[in-house]
Specification:
The protein is of the alpha/beta class. Helices cover about 50% and strands about 10% of the residues.
């Protein structure tokens, strides 16, 4: 059974009431033990959510985060930091990856997770990282 670290593009679609129905259905089909998040994803999510001027929208976003607390979470500890450093040093020449993508990638590598993202190209430079795009799944 695969376990997925949801990046911000996937978690954001799941959280939005009018989010991509394919992505929302896929996330809902996962068992709680298959849904993983890391603090970087949550931070990026909050940047977007707190930017909404509508208090109702911000409250709804907060409810989604509370619900997601039942999922699996992994903090960034010393072992993840070592994986992050190794991944950064092993990027192919000329390749770069944003830190907000490399940290979740390091969490996924450390715990053997598949990164679920709509931005596959952001993660491609990281060798040995499994990536899945739920936006590209065939219609049910």
């Amino acid at each position: 059974m695969d376990r997925y670290l949801l990046d911000t593009s996937v978690f954001g679609e799941y959280a939005r009431r009018q989010g991509n129905p394919r992505v929302r259905a896929w996330v809902n089909s996962l068992l709680p033990l298959q849904r993983w998040l890391c603090p970087i994803t949550l931070g990026e999510f909050w940047v977007g959510a707190l930017g909404f001027p509508d208090k109702v929208v911000r409250h709804r976003e907060r409810r989604v985060v509370i619900q997601a607390k039942k999922w699996e979470w992994r903090d960034i500890d010393e072992n993840v930091a070592k994986v992050w450093a190794a991944a950064k040093l092993s990027l192919p020449g000329g390749s770069t990856i944003e830190s907000n993508d490399l940290w979740p990638a390091a969490v996924a590598l450390r715990f053997g997770l598949v990164v679920a993202t709509g931005n596959v190209r952001h993660f491609r430079p990281v060798e040995a990282l499994a990536v899945f795009d739920p936006f590209k799944m065939p219609d049910q």
